[in-house]
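Supplementary Methods S3. Input chains for the assembly prediction are listed below.
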Amino acid sequence: MVEMGEEIIVLDEVYKIFGPQPRGRAFDLARSGMDKNRVQAETGHVVGLDNVTFSVKKGELFVVMGLSGSGKSTALRTVNKLHDITYGSVIVDGTDVQALEGSDLQVFRRQYMGMVFQHFALFPHRKVIDNVSYGLKVQGVEKKTREDAAMRALSLVGLGSYAQSFPSELSGGMQQRVGLARGLASDPDILLMDEAFSALDPLIRRQMQDEMMEIQADLHKTILFITHDLNEALRIGDRVCIMKDGAVVQIGTPEEILTQPATGYVAEFVQDVDQGRVIQVHEIMQEPRPVPAGATLAEALNRIGGRSGAFVIDDSGSPTHLLTADDGMRAAGMGTTDLGPALRTDFDSCRREDCLNTVYAAAGRGLPIAVCDESGTLIGNLDPRHIMEEMGRVEHLIDDFEREVFM
Amino acid sequence: MTVLAQQAGGESATPGLFSEGLLDQFQIPVGNWADQAVDWIAVRLETLLQIIEWPFSTLIGFVVDDILEPVSWVWVVLAFLVIGTLIRGVKVGTFAAVSLGLCALLGVNFWLQTARTIGYIGVAVLLCVIVGLPLGIACGRVDSVWRVVRPVLDGMQVVHSFVYMLPFIFFWGTGVVSATMVTMVFALPPLVRLTNLGIRQVREDVVEASRAYGAPEWRVLFDVQLPLARPAITTGINQTLLLAISMLGIAAIMGAGGLGQLLLKAITDQSVSKGAASGLAFFLVAVVLDRISQPQSDGPGGLLRRIRRAWAHRRDPEKLLEGAEDTPSPEPAGSAGGFAPVTAEERPGMVIAGIGGLVAAVSVFLVWTTDAGFMSAYGRRTDENLAGETFNGLSASGGSWFGVLTLALGLWVVAAVVTTWLAPGRGPRLFTTDGALIGALALLVMMVCYALASPSDLSSPGTGPGVWLALAGGLVASVGALMWIRRAPHTPLHPLKLKIGWGRVIGGTVAAVIILVGMFSAWSFDKRSDQVMSDETLAKIEELRQKAVENPADAGPISAEISALTAQMSVTQLAVTDGVSSEGTRLGLWTLIGGLLGLATVLPAAGAMGRDEHRRWRWSTMTAGIGAGVACAALGWIAVHVRSADPNYLSGVGSFLALLGGVLLAATAAGILAEFRRSKVYADL
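Predicted C-alpha cells for the full assembly:
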C-alpha cells in the first residue's frame, strides 16, 4: 500500500495506437518521433497516446488538460483498462494494469476505482439510490449495507432526499452529483473524472468544483481529473498535465504553468485564462514602506521614491491615510510642507491571499491598494500598474511565440 | 427448339462454336441436380431433418394439441385477461378477453380454429424470440457476428416466401411444421435487426460506467444493455408478430390449419357466412395479439396501418424506432400532488350507489324465473319439460345473459365506489364517478327493458323476485350515482368548446334512427322443426305398433312406415318476429324508448341548454349510461341466442342494430368524458 504523497498511478512511456494493426508500422513511426498527423496520413492509424509518462501521487488532485483529440480521455481509460495500451506500462499501486484479465480486472476495478463521466452516464432505468449503490452491488455487498453507504454518499453531495427519484427527474447539476456520489459510494482509493463538469453551465460548474474540493479536503482521494478547460484545471488541480496530439506538453503546478509556460502552445492556452483568478496578491505586492503619522511632506515624498504612493500608518501599524505621488508633488509645488492636506482616506485594502480578480475594481481607480493581515496591520503595497503588467506579460510571451513561428 | 436447331444446322454446313445450333444444345440440368440433392439430403440427413423438426412439432403439439384445443375457451379468455392486464394494463386485458370471448361465441368450430391460430402464431413468435433474441444480442455485441449475419438477413428478406417455401415442403412435407418454419424465416429478421440496433444504441458511456465499476460482462448485458434496449426489442417482437400474422394466409396454402384455412375454404366455397365469421375472428385475434405485444411508446393506429408499416419497413425496421421515446419519464418527484379527496357531500351518493350495485349483484342469485325462461332461447317445446322449476339469474334457462350482465354492471358500480373511496382519482378511468353513473344507468335501462318485454306466447313463465330486486338495485344505484356526480369535483383537462355540439346531436339522432329501424327488423329467426300430430295419425301409429308387437317378423317394414308417417307430419315453419309486434318480446320497442330517452339527454350534453361545463359532463355521462343500457339489452338478447344449443334458433339483425345504436349513442359522449378528471390538488412546490 502506498502512503500519502507517494506515487500511486504511474504511466510510463505509454503508446496507444488505434487501428487494425496497432503494433505495426504506425507504432514504429510514432516511436521514432513522427507527429500524430503524419502518422495518420502515412498509415491510416490514429495515435491516441504518444509516449505519455506521468505519475499521480496518493491524495493528489491531478488534472490532465487538453483539447479534444489530445488523448486525455484515452489516458484516463488506460488506468482502469477500459482501453488496452500498445506499449509501455501502467502501474496502479504496484499492480501492472495491463496484465490483468477477466475477474482479476473486475476485482481490481471494484477495489480501486470510481469513475465519473462527462454526460453523467447514470443508468436511466434505475433509481438514484440504485445508481449510487451499483458499484457495491457488483461487489456483492448485501442490500442493507450498500444502501446505507449509498445514502451516506448521497448526503455528502446534498441529495439525500432524492434517493427514490429517477435520474431523468433531476437537473444536470444534480445528476452529476449523483454521478459523483456513485464514484464515492464504494469508497475507492482513486476517482477517475472524465470531463466531469464540462457538460454543466458555468455557474453550476463553479459550484460543483467548490463542492468537490470541499469533499476532497475531507476524504483525500487520489483524483485523476480530465478537462478541456484550463481555467478549471488551474483552479482545482494540485498539479496539471497539459496534453496535445497524444503527447504530454507540460506538467506542473498551476502557478508553474501560468508563469513558466513550457511552449508557445501552453502559452496560447494561458492567454485565455483569467489569470486574476489564479495569481494571488502576495505574488506581486511590494513591501509596505509606510509613512509614520508625524512625518513631514518632504520626508513622505522621500519614502515614496519612484512608487505611485505610500500609506500613513498609526501606532498599531494599520493604514489610516494614503499619500499618492501625484498629490504629494502637487502639494509640494504649492509650497506646503505640512503632510495633512495632501492625504486622502478613500483608499482600498485587501488580503495577501486574495486573487487578483477581486481587486480589479479597486485597481481601476489607479490608486495604490493597501494589503493588510487579519489584525489590520499593513503588510504590503499593491500597485495597480503591476496588476496590469502581470496581465500583459503572457501576451508578450505569445507575441514572441508567433514571431518565432511566422518570421 | 429442335426445329430451330435443324434449320440453323442446315444453313451453315459446319456448325461452329458460336452458331445457334451448338449453343442451343446445352441443357444444364439444374433441376436434376436439385432433385438428386434433395433426395440425397432426405435419405442421408434424415436424422438431421428430424432434429430440426423436433422443436417445431413438439412445441406445436404441446401448445396447440395439449393446451389450447382441449381446455375450455373460458380459461383461454381468462388467461388473456390476466396476460393483457399484466403486460399492458386493465384496458388491453379487458379488450383481449372480450374479443376472444366473441370469437368463442361464434361457434365451436370457429373457436377451435381461433385457438389453433393463436397457438401457431404463439409458437412461431416464441421460436423467433428463442432464436432471434440471442442472435440479435450477439450481433449487437460482436461486430464480426453482425458482419456474417447481416447478409443472411438481407437474403431472407429479399427472396420471396413462395421461393423458399419449396425446400421446406420438400424436406418436411406440407403441414403446420413447415408452415411454421417458413413463417419463422419471414418474421425473424426484424427481431434480430432491432435487437442488434437496440444493443448498439445504448450509450457507450453508460456501458463503460458499468464496466468501470467492475461489472462482469453478463452484468453489463443484463443490468444495462438489455434494459435500455427494451423498447427496440419489444418493437422487434411486435414486428415479428405482425409479420407472422400476415403469413397465415401462405401458411394455410401450405396446409396449416387455423383461421387461414377457414378463410381459404370460404373463398373456394364462396360462402359469405363462413367468410364473414372467420374473417371477424381472424381480425380480432390479430388485433388482440398486436395490442398485447405493442410497445408502450408506439403511436396509435389501426391494425391494418400497423401491418402495412411492418411490411414497408421489414427490411429496415430500424426506421420504426424513430420518434419513439426511449425512456418513459414518470411524474417528477417535485410535483408530489394528489387528486381531490372524497368530500362529505359526496359520501351519501356514493353509499347509496354502492348499495344499489350490491343489491343488483346479489339479485342474480335469487329466483329470476319460474317454469321456463322466455329469454333463454328455450321458448318452445323444450321448455315444457322445465315446468315447475325455478331458475336464478345465471342459469341457462332462467335469466340467462341478462343475469350475467346484471352481475357485471352491479359489481362495476361497487368497484367504482370502492376505488374512489380508497384512492380518489387514482384508479382506472372507468372506476370513477362517471363510471359509476354509466354502470348504474345501463343496469337500470337494461332491467327495465327485460322486465317490460313480454314473454313469448308459447310459454308464460313467471317473473321471480330476483328481477324486481335487480331493477330496484339499478334504480337505487342510479339515484345514488346522480347525487354523487352532482358533487363530484371533476374538471376538464382543456376548456370545452363554447359552440353547441351539433355533431353530437346528429350522432344521437342517427343512433335513434338505427334503433328505430332495428325495432321493425327481425329480432328472432326460428327455424326449428316441430311435429304436429293429429289424433288420427297418433291412433294410426299406435295401431301399427301393436301390429309389430304381434308379428315381430314384420317389424322392419312397419317401423319404416311409422317413420314415413312422422316425417310427413313434421312441419318446418320459419317464425320471424320483429321487435315491436305482440308475437315477439317487444324488446325492440323498449330499446327504442331507451334510445329516445338517450337522445333527449344529448341536447343538454351538447350544450344546447346552458354552457356550464360540469352540467354538460353530467348529461353526457347520462347519455353514455342510457346508450350502454340499450346496448346491454340488445347484447343480452344476442347472447341468449348465441348460447342456444339449437342452431335453428337465431337472433335477428334488429337486435344487432339496437346494439349498434346503443354503442353509437354512448360514443357521442366519449369525447367529453375523456376530458374530465378528478381535480388535482398540488402539494407545495
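Residues 7-277 of chain A form a domain with the Rossmann fold fold (CATH 3.40.50.300). Residues 384-406 of chain A form the longest helix (23 residues).
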